[in-house]
Amino acid sequence: GIESTEVALVAFYGLVVAGVVIAGLAAFLGELVRATSSATWWPVVYFAIVMSGSTGLSSKSTNLALFTAMVLTMMPRVAGRGMARRTDEG
């Protein structure tokens, strides 16, 4: 089997689709860091390195969901950043 997320994505879906998926993943992880503290960069970099050495993201597993849930529950939120909040109550 192919033991690299990037190579597996290119092999399975093609270069254009793999590029879009990787760019979307990078944007999602960047937004995750923006919504939490800047200390989240360390777990994000570690996650990216570990997932590059395995087929964790290209094999349709729940690794990204588990990582996101852990970061959102363990890292402090930054006030005024992240998802927009509704201000109207009506």
Question: Can you walk through the features of this model?
Answer:
The structure is a single chain. With 90 residues, the chain is an all-alpha fold. The protein has helices at 5-13, 15-35, 41-52, 63-74. The mean pLDDT is 82.
Largest sheet: none
Number of helices: 4
> What share of the residues does DSSP label as strand, in percent?
under 5%
Q: Secondary-structure element sequence?
A: HHHH
Indicate the topology.
Elements: H1 5-13, H2 15-35, H3 41-52, H4 63-74
Helix pairs in contact: 1-2
Please give a handful of descriptors for the protein shown:
90 residues, mainly alpha, 4 helices, elongated
Summed up:
With 90 residues, the protein is mainly α. The protein has helices at residues 5-13, 15-35, 41-52, 63-74. Helix content is 60%, strand content 0%.
